[in-house]
User: Fold these one by one.
Assistant:
Number 1:
Amino acid sequence: MSQEQVIRERVAEIRQRIHELADGRRVKLMAVTKFHTREEAEWAIAAGVDLIGENRVQEALQKWKASPPAVPLHDIGHLQTNKVKYAIELFDSIDSVDSDRLVDLLDRTASRPFNVMLEVNVGSEESKYGLAPEAVRPYIELAGRLHHVRIRGLMTVLPARRENSVEEERRIRRHMQEMVDLWRMCRSEGWSWAPLEELSMGMSGDWEWAVEAGATLIRVGTGIFGPRAYASRG
Ligand SMILES: *Cc1c(COP(=O)(O)O)cnc(C)c1O
């Protein structure tokens, strides 16, 4: 089977499985295309993914600057402040905002309403990035002073599965539930600058649990394209 056919089948299988698990809710599928080619990404778009996610500005510029994808392009990787200008031009949303400094800079640099998500670090010591859960609410309250930035959702990157144990599953599901609770609590405030439509969580190893828990958007790389060839591209 060609890679194009593989991608088409995998996207169809994921969609079918979402349909079985989501209980009638709509769940968006983001194809995470880091370390994959533009051609592969376009096959995924043709197969019906809703969004494209990239995690490095440099790579995303090379792939998409000349002509952006036919679906929204999101930045899901840690954004360095010296790349903000390029990121605002290229991306439809920055989903990995996790500091006052970054949000202020985004707000000052943008000249139009600009969508972001806040990255939240739920119970993971290994992740370097993300706001602590208890910091999210005060953070959003303060963001009311901003002019252009609109907080469209929360995102979390949970530690990858490595044991396949029952305890591990329980721990990941508990963190997902904490995210759902936090998201609902913040949404219920009805902040006009933070509509919080999206809860982005779940990757190749755990997206089914995320859909069951209530995610509105899942981010799948390996599960669509196969393993990333890190070595060959440095
Ligand atoms: C790479 C990446 C993903 C996708 O990971 P897979 O395990 O390949 O599905 C999702 N979210 C973020 C933030 C990533 O960097």
Number 2:
Amino acid sequence: MAKMSTILKFTFVASLAQAHFTFVRLAHNGEWQAPTQFIRNKTEPFEERSTPNTNNNERLYNFPTFVSDYPESVRCGRDNMAHAANTEVLRVKAGDTIEIAHTRISPSDWADNQWYDCPNGRGSCDPNDPDWTMDFNHPGPLLAHLSKAPDGTDVREYDGSGEWVKIYSLGFDMNEDGSIHWLAYNYEKLPARFIFDIPKQTPAGEYLLRLDLIWPGLWEPPIYVSDTPQIYATCAQILVESDATGPLPEGIEIPADLNTTTPGMRTSLSMYRGESMDDGYTYPGGLLWTGEELVEDKPIL
Ligand SMILES: *[C@@H]1O[C@H](CO)[C@@H](O)[C@H](O)[C@H]1NC(C)=O
Ligand SMILES: *[C@@H]1O[C@H](CO)[C@@H](O)[C@H](O)[C@H]1NC(C)=O
Ligand SMILES: [Cu+2]
């Protein structure tokens, strides 16, 4: 039964009001900031260019982005550059702690009680849910990347076309029976919290901090069974103060390295259903920087 309900949930089409999700808010050292205060907003509705495997190029606020949409949309969300100049830059110290929060509620329905009255100090919640739970409707890894604005460039003018270094990922745990449990998705129940540090070794400068949850595409070689991967990117603008003297390690480029065939971006039908992990599965988004070294970002089994 559990399996059956999982399959049904994966194929449900959510209502427009609570369709999909967007990361909209961050806490700095435990203190929640206003929604979109340091995070570039999105434009809705927004017309993406025509993309394969998607029948609707007009996207609303919480809709997914596909890897073949405009590169800017894949990097930091739909029309984000139009909002960059009006978005504040959060001043942090290397080593500071960030928490992020998402919402599934459309901006036209945003109300204070879904940000400021949430149980247990969470940064977002759904007052219409009996448990105030702000859930996710898709499984997949949650990722955070940093991209440094080129020297002399204001981060509010930076489009993210440089390299991106992964500093955090939250994937799945393995159940005793070999099935997998995505920690953000949690079967549409209360998600894990997303708390991570800006590595102490991060060089001083202005950065984009990219937040995403990727629903990998379903791949049954040699053909796609379902849609391409779904991406839910937003970017915060931060200024990192730091005494670090080392360089930032090599990162990935977006969208080139978040494509349909790059590691982690697609799974077998069995993994899609949560029944098992594909051999050698690696989370998407490149290597993970611990601050000390770059490591392969594989599930901990
Ligand atoms: C963010 O964008 C949404 C949708 O375009 C809009 O409704 C909302 O007012 C914007 N928020 C801010 C703070 O600009
Ligand atoms: C993504 O992969 C497709 C198919 O291999 C390719 O045509 C496309 O150019 C790639 N996109 C990017 C941005 O690299
Ligand atoms: Cu979706």
